Structures are given as C-alpha cells and as structure tokens.
Amino acid sequence: MQEDYTGHGIVIDLMDIMEDELKKRGYKYLERNSKIGNGFAKCITNAYDGRIVCHKPVNDPQHGTQEFFRIKL
Prior knowledge:
By secondary structure, the chain is of the alpha+beta class. The chain has helices at 10-24, 40-47, and strands at 29-35, 52-60, 64-72. The chain has a three-stranded antiparallel β-sheet with strand order 1-3-2, with helices on one face. The radius of gyration is 13 Å and the shape is globular.
C-alpha cells in the first residue's frame, strides 16, 4: 500500500505546508530524522542543500540508523 504513494512528491508538499506554518509562528529551524537505509536521508540532503545547518547520524533502536537534520526555514 505504501508503495502506491512513493514518488508522487507528497512528502515535499506536506513539508512545504509545514514550513510555511512554522515560519508564521516565528520558528527559525525545522529538525527531523530521516532513515539512511532507504535513501530518504539522501533525498533530504539534496532537497535542502544550502539550508542544512547541522546533520549527524543517529542510532534509533526502533527505526534503525537515521540522520538528524536541522534545516533553516
């Protein structure tokens, strides 16, 4: 079922909406973890290139190795 939505840019659209709302509320940064093994962390790196102010690997026992990102809004 999840594969039905892969590659349609849904996450990008949701992130844009969330970023707009965070800016309205006065936030300067967005922080998130993204899974490394499925390539999503690489997608985040590419999408937010130039706005990432911090990133580092995080070991998450529940979700596997991820990368933490702090992204300037």
